[in-house]
Amino acid sequence: MPDTSPSSPFSAPAPGGRLSRMQRWFRMHPDAAGIAVDVAGIGTVTCSLLVYGLLQERIMTIGFGPKNADLFDSSVFLVLCNRLVTCLVAFTWVAATSQDVNPVAPLSSYSAVSFTNVVATSCQYEALRYVSFSVQTLAKSAKVLPVMLWGTVYTGKRYRASEYFHALTITAGCTIFVWGGDSSSRRMEDKTSMVSYAMGAGLMLLYLA
Predict the structure, then answer these.
(1) Which residues, including other chains, have CB under 8 Å from residue 148's CB and lie 6 or more apart?
(2) Bridge partner residues of 64 (DSSP)
(3) Burial class (CB in 10 A: 0-12, 13-18, 19+), 44
(4) What is the pTM of this model?
(5) 184, 129 contact by CB (below 8 A)
(6) Residue 150: DSSP 8-state
(7) What is the pLDDT along the chain (209 residues), one digit of tens a residue?
């Protein structure tokens, strides 16, 4: 955020004792620059996740090669590539910023989190064989109500009635969308097979758990 202290060029009067238009605007809106940075950050994260999701579905459901006949079959390999690139970026950032990398928790705790994360991501990729990416996204949105109920039962957390109403509305909207259209993946050959839908639902449960 720009410095609007008396010694700052944003607040110091211009020659002649008058404030410029920009200086007056920053004096009237001291938090504007911080808000702009926040909005840019939110937009960047949202666009990145959108592109990530589209590419994820493209890799798993649309073939490659002549006539798109070759399908990618190894979800675990995709997860491995994802994690290797993540490690490369993280190591580069740590080396560039000279941050402390000493663990603040037992390594066993990190390994448990890493294992469950890899399993969840693998299930996410595998589920795209049976359900569409939009259904996956809606299922994640509908996770709000189960999380609230679990928090109430397990930790004794209390929510307002309006929060439960919002969660029920989101869940109902997701349910109507799923039941009102085709939720199957492009890769699923038999779109009437209940076994395939059950497989997709099971993988999504493992992914969201």
Answers:
(1) 159, 163, 164, 167
(2) 70
(3) exposed
(4) 0.64
(5) no
(6) H
(7) 444 444 444 445 545 556 667 667 767 777 777 788 888 999 999 998 888 888 887 888 777 777 766 777 788 888 898 889 989 998 898 888 888 878 788 888 888 888 888 888 888 888 888 887 778 877 777 788 888 888 888 888 888 888 888 888 888 887 787 777 666 776 666 666 677 778 877 888 887 76
